[in-house]
Amino acid sequence: MRADGEPSTSNGTSRPFSNGSGASPQHKAAVSNSSNGMRKSPVATNGSSSTNGHGNAKPRISYFGHDREEVTRILLQALLDLGYNGSAAGLSQESGYELENPLVAAFRNAVLQGEWAEAEELLFDGTTSEGGVGVFRERLVLQDGVDKNVMRFWLRQQKFMELLEQRDTGRALMVLRSELTPLYQDTSKLHFLSSLLMCQSTEDLKVKSEWDGAEGGSRRQLLSRLSSCISPSIMIPEHRLATLLQQVKHNQISRCLYHNTVSPPSLYQDHTCDRNNFPVRTILELDKHAGEVWDVQFSHDGTKLASCGGDGTVLIYDVATWEILQTLADHEAGVGAVAWSPDGSMIVTCCQDRHARLWNAVTGEIKKILPRFDEPVSGCVWSPDGNSFVTGCLYKEKNLCQFDLNGTMVYDWGRSHRIQDLAVSPNGHRLVAMDNEKHIHVYNFVTRELEYEMDMEAQLCSVSISQDNRYLLVNKKNGQATLLDLDTRESLKYFQSADRGEEFVIRACFGGANEGFVITGSEEGYVYIWHKENGQLIEKLAGHDKGCCNSVSWNPTNPAMFASAGDDCRVRIWSNEESMLRSKGSRQPYAIQQESNSW
User: Where does this protein have compositionally biased stretches of type Polar residues (predicted)?
Assistant: First the structure.
């Protein structure tokens, strides 16, 4: 089996295939002139679909209930993806099936080579062929309901972008005016494309448009979009067998309530995970806070844990030993939230004394105290590059501001909503601000423009964005967490706990292997864990028996560990049966007076 990027070898044959791995430019011709999916001349060999070794036998039309032609052509594609060209040639000859016809091969090549006029002609005008009776036009068969103008728009948009990349602004403007605009597509999209004409450099173009250029993956992505509009019996979607196998694994994972391993399940057998390998047991209690613990956060590499609360201190623990590395105590009131820098070297603390402080997390020294806000600082998030951070405040002014590492404010969004919590997508494209009422505000973090607002119809607690940048988790004070698609704005899942609080800030987050779970605390002190895929509540854990479980944080590098923080002045570390057996025992908490975590 060849490695990714290694050139295909013929494995004993030089016969080219048009839908091979990578769809490389040298695949200019199809295997034969037979139509897609049609049989070639019968081959009288053992195992062929014509006689199967018996002269009077009928062709087999199914494979365990599946269409024989579909299975064979998908196998042909998979063999080519794997680099087994000789085996694919043998299968094609023995079965009598071709992967695809010359028309499909020509269209694929036209898109990948940037031959836009030819691609449009093959899609909509067809090719001229000599038939038995005169001349006929042959073209690709589109799926029912496909808007041809949409497909034209995609092709011409790519053409426009590549001209801009070449700094050929004149021709790009002509394409915009004479080829894109007459298609009457989305006006806002046309305005956006028009704004790209003002980009001063190719790099600026790519950043603003989130496009990787002609030499990147844009042409292949375009081909994938176009092929989704073409009849799959004519043009099999790319890597179809791999997609089907991935769906099998995904189905097994979605049915396994306690799947919490990074490695995917084997295809050799049905998959299930044991509950004993799931973090449902407290292996350690950290009791060094002299007040309620309001927030707890693992660093991005999972090696450190920070906790903060009503006593005004922030404790940083070494996850390997659970020894306290630093005590950040220079706060005049309770600390409601902490935020780690991406590299774990710095931390921002958000305090009720109306200050946000930037700390060196290694030495415990204050790097900068931001000017006093008019209300408590409620939250903070870092930009993915670690060069700036955004604070949220519960005041109507300067409630959403971005600062550099010197503490200089570089941007103020100037909105009037009071911010309760914040989240930035890992790719740096979106900033989500949650106000202290019922609304979330989604900004483009690059342009800083507001993309949309949503009324969540309940008082809100926290927001969190998944590592794949797709999902937003909104926790509400009524005990319900909602999973949203950031692009479509659709509500996908609802996770309702039995505890319907209305007063305190309770934080929720994603967690587990591949973020397969949703976890939240509750005003009754319980920890709730749901399966993200099917929405099923799989655990209700008695976490903190004196007041709220205010915050939870799942270790990003250890799926078998999460932490919870509560009004009982403790941070609990949760893990699985194996870790519990290895634990040296729990630590006893101090007896202290409780305080409220209400803002």
Answer: 7-24, 31-54
Residue written as token pair 């590395």: 325
Please write down the long-range contacts of 155-161, taking CB distance under 8 Å and 24 or more positions apart: 155/111, 155/116, 155/119, 155/120, 155/123, 155/222, 155/226, 156/116, 156/180, 156/183, 157/193, 158/114, 158/116, 158/218, 158/219, 158/222, 159/114, 159/116, 160/193, 161/196, 161/205, 161/209, 161/211, 161/218
Angstrom distances, CA of residue 552 to CA of 65, 225, 436, 511, 540: 48, 40, 20, 10, 13
Q: How far is CA 141 from the centre of its chain?
A: 33
216 with 205: CB under 8 angstroms?
no
Distance CA 427, CA 445 (A): 10
With a CB cutoff of 8 Å and minimum separation 6, the contacts of 432 are 422, 423, 424, 425, 440, 441, 442, 443, 463, 465, 472
User: Which residues does residue 455 pair with via DSSP β-bridges, in sequence order?
Assistant: 439
pLDDT category of residue 28 using cuts at 50, 70 and 90: very low
pTM beyond 0.90: no
Phi, psi of 89 (to 5 degrees): -65, -40
Buried b (16+ CB within 10 A) or exposed e, 158-193: bbbbbbbbeeeeeebeebbeebbeebebeeeebeeb
Q: Which amino acid is at 178?
A: S
Selected residue with higher pLDDT from 429 and 50 = 429
DSSP 3-state assignment of 290? coil
φ/ψ of 177, rounded to 5, equals -75, -45
Instruction: Give me the residues paired with residue 360 across strands.
Output: 346
Please tell me the predicted confidence (pLDDT) of residue 579.
62
Residues in the chain: 599
Q: Which residue has the tokens 């408590």?
A: 376
Beta bridge mates, 314:
308, 328
- CATH dotted code for 275-582: 2.130.10.10
Reading phi first (left if > 0) and then psi (alpha if -120 to 50, else beta), residue 182 is in alpha
Could you tell me the strand order of the sheet in which 400-404 lies? 377-382, 388-393, 400-404, 409-412
DSSP type of residue 254: H
The model's confidence at residue 139, banded by pLDDT at 50, 70 and 90, is low
Crossing angle of helices 148-165 and 202-209, in 10° steps, is: 150
Q: Check: CB of residue 110 under 8 Å from CB of residue 122.
A: yes
C-alpha–C-alpha distance, residues 599 and 505, integer Å: 8
| Partners of residue 434 on adjacent β-strands | 421, 440
**pLDDT (tens digit, 9 = 90+) per residue, 245-301?**
999 998 888 889 999 988 888 889 888 888 988 999 999 999 999 999 999 999 999
Output phi, psi for 353, to 5 deg: -80, 10
The residue that leads in pLDDT, 129 or 321, is 321
